[in-house]
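name: query_chain
kind: protein
chains: 1
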Amino acid sequence: MRKIVLLVFVLYTSAQASPFDCPSLGDGDSLSQTQLLERLTHSCRYDRLERPITYTEKGSRLPVDVYVRWYIYFMQNLEAHDLQFKIHALLQFRFLDPRLIFRKVSPKRSQPILGEANLRDILWMPHIFLANERDSSIMGTNEKDILTSVSLDGTVIISSRITATLYCWMSLQKFPFDEQHCSTYLESWMYNTSELILHWEQKRPITFNPDVHLTEYVLKQIWSNESTINADLNDLRHGAFAGNYSSLSFTVQLTREVGFYVMDYFLPSMLIVGASWVSFWLQADQAAPRLMLGTSTMLTFITLASAQGKTLPKVSYIKVSEVWFLGCTLFIFGSLLEFAFVNTIWRRTSNVDVKKLKSKYILRSTLSPRLYETTTFRQHSADSVSMTANSVSERPHTAVNCKNYLTKPNMQTDGGVATEETRKFYEFDIGLMEEGGDENVHEKRNSWTTLTPQEISQWIDAKARVMFPIAFIIFNVLFWTFVYTF
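structure:
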């Protein structure tokens, strides 16, 4: 009961208040800007906590239209390891507040009322925030870097110089030949779309200072967007309030400059890979210089690759730069394996019989010399099976000729029957004897060539001098085609 009586008393007192409690707006031309603003924003006619209200012809309330403009003074390069970028910008809001119209009360004024932070503090402000910010602040001091303007028709313009660190998710699959799209989001905090709607200014809403230059990127394109964000209890960006909130965003497309990476990583890595091929011109028994050259190039390349990777976040997918470094590492490692292979062959003590001086026969004889010894033995064993005792006594020189070939003391056959290789050689030998006798057989057998381990090692090095550069050129063609095509 006491509360009801007190409320009635307060309402009665307000109704009987003197008109002098609410200052008059008459003769506004004789007032200073400060006096005029004090009367316009007096508590009897202005509530700073309540948004400006306008009505349609039917009497329904309209939301406040807030127009936004960005002017970018400075933009810092994207920091890939932190996935962020930094900007210094002028952020400007423009809206209409009918309560601040002073054209009629001060008809002689033609200029807007200007002020700084103190003027902004007595006016209603739309609560707008950067949705993807990591940090933001007013540049300089609050007094110096905030400009507030109130026009004759009640248009309020708030301009603030801010510095902001913004989050930008980067896709690094094609690093360092990548393009990044970084967005900046502005959203209404406490007023949903029924009370406040954000718009971009119609003319040049986003402008960059002509003196803005990025050292690592080139600014290709800018586009803006207006949208609505639906917030619920699962999304607390707008506090505990659910509803639809107005949002603005602008996106910049940045293309990375590859000159630095080409000069500091790609060209040096090509030279390091080429330096590893110098070992092919060194003799196979020179183990110390070849081993030192191979290991030094490998360690140098690993240091180069790790230096480049320190500036990037540890992502789960494979980047183009990693494909390049992996390919170059395989070429350097391949040169080390080639040295180990030819050095092992060089240290062999027995010669190798080669059927023909062709790559496949030389490699087969080198990789499996015992297999060729067994094959040769089976061929000569076939001779002994095909010859009768009489032919042996009539042609004693055959046994002398067989001394030119490797033999084994015994030959194992399956069930007393010669193997398929023995049978083929037997038929071949009989055919030669029918054509020209033992002289043709002897000539055919002597067509085999004996190579020393040193000759084989030199032959492998000679092939490597050609095959490694050709393979590396093919790798470069495939790599750079993928980079600039896909």
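note: Residues 5-19, 371-436 have pLDDT under 50 and may be disordered.
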